[in-house]
Design goal:
- This protein has three domains: 39 residues, no CATH class; 84 residues, TolA/TonB C-terminal domain (2-Layer Sandwich), CATH 3.30.2420; 92 residues.
- The chain is built from eight helices and eleven strands.
- Helix 4 runs antiparallel to helix 5, helix 4 packs parallel to helix 6 and helix 6 packs antiparallel against helix 7.
- The longest helix has 18 residues.
- The protein is globular and about 70 Å long.
- The two termini are 32 Å apart.
Length: 229
């Protein structure tokens, strides 16, 4: 929620320009204060946010993911124009996220107390049992092989190993996209590198899956690429 209320004070200063000793002694500053009230905006507040329904196929497969959505909130507090901005890549999670947002309701944004339309961004996570604490042994094995192939500049092997690197949980998903970044750094474009980093960081505000040092390094690399592009 964002509240902005500002009152500006405009100060007008007039100095006497008349000459003479008598006039100089009587000259003073004229200060006039004029209050100007600016518009006050209050952002939308969540009212009812039903949890997403976990896709059955993904649950049976033990697969986790996330979806970043952008949408408008009407003056009546209902979402519309809901769109997927980024996701971990699963279409079933994307469909579930879109259906979920359509069931949400908000106290609408206001301008000077009057309800108005406003935009919002939300990240919806699909996790089976809280934050994942690690990766499967098979994932770790392919990840290490991939890093070795990249360091040896063996593109053919690296391509095969990247294709075999299928993430299951949110922890693996973060490392999967960091692996993509390493691959594209050798054989891809700057845009591909940036996209991989965006998905690796996954719109997180802190290092929940990647080590803090790697997370901060990814943010810095994203900034550099955005400037270059």
């Amino acid at each position: 929620m964002l509240k902005i209320g500002i009152v500006l004070t405009l100060t007008l200063l007039a100095l006497s320009s008349r000459g003479g000793a008598e006039e100089d002694s009587q000259s003073n500053s004229l200060v006039e204060t004029i209050p100007v009230q600016l518009e006050v905006f209050t952002g939308p507040k969540p009212k009812e946010l039903p949890s997403p329904i976990y896709p059955r196929g993904a649950r049976r497969a033990g697969k986790e993911g996330w979806v970043q959505v952008n949408f408008m909130i009407s003056a009546e507090g209902k979402p519309y124009e809901v769109a997927v901005i980024h996701s971990s890549g699963s279409e079933s999670f994307e469909r579930a996220a879109l259906k979920t947002v359509s069931r949400w309701s908000f106290d609408p944004a206001t301008m000077n107390g009057k309800p108005i339309d406003a935009g919002a961004n939300y990240k919806i996570k699909f996790a089976l049992s809280g934050p994942a604490a690690g990766a499967r042994s098979s994932f770790v094995r392919y990840y290490r092989k991939l890093q070795k192939s990249i360091s040896e500049r063996d593109q053919e092997s690296a391509k095969e190993e990247l294709a075999a690197l299928e993430p299951q949980n949110l922890y693996e998903d973060a490392y999967f996209h960091m692996a993509r970044y390493s691959y594209y750094k050798e054989w891809g474009s700057k845009l591909q590198q940036l996209n991989a980093l965006l998905l690796g960081v996954a719109h997180e505000s802190q290092a929940n899956y990647l080590p803090k040092k790697l997370f901060m390094s990814a943010l810095l690399s994203m900034f550099v690429l955005e400037v270059e592009l």
